[in-house]
Design goal:
The protein is of the alpha+beta class and 88 residues long. It has helices at 19-25, 44-55, 78-86, and strands at 8-15, 27-32, 35-40, 59-65. It has one domain: Alpha-Beta Plaits (2-Layer Sandwich), CATH 3.30.70.
């Protein structure tokens, strides 16, 4: 783990990943197939490597988000999940 104390949001694309492993090991929400937001006190590199090692994806991307994104047509409850964590 890193010295990063404040959790941040990461947009994660993990093609054909083990979704159960991702959801069991991270505070995360599935936006749609292969796309997640992870909320973690980790660096981008730590998120990337942890997701890679735990879920064995075919393709992977992890990108930090400066704020929660605006979106439409994604998983029900995703915006509520983001707002709850933004207020912590």
């Amino acid at each position: 783990m890193s010295d990063l104390e404040t959790p941040r949001f990461y947009l994660v694309f993990a093609e054909s990943a083990d979704e159960n492993a991702l959801m069991e090991n991270f505070d995360a929400i599935r936006l749609r197939e292969d796309m997640f937001i992870v909320y973690a006190s980790m660096t981008r590199s730590e998120v990337y490597h942890a997701v890679r090692d735990l879920t064995d994806p075919n393709a992977l991307m992890a990108a930090p988000l400066a704020a929660h994104p605006k979106f439409r047509g994604l998983a029900p409850g995703a915006l509520k999940w983001l707002k709850q964590r933004s207020n912590d």
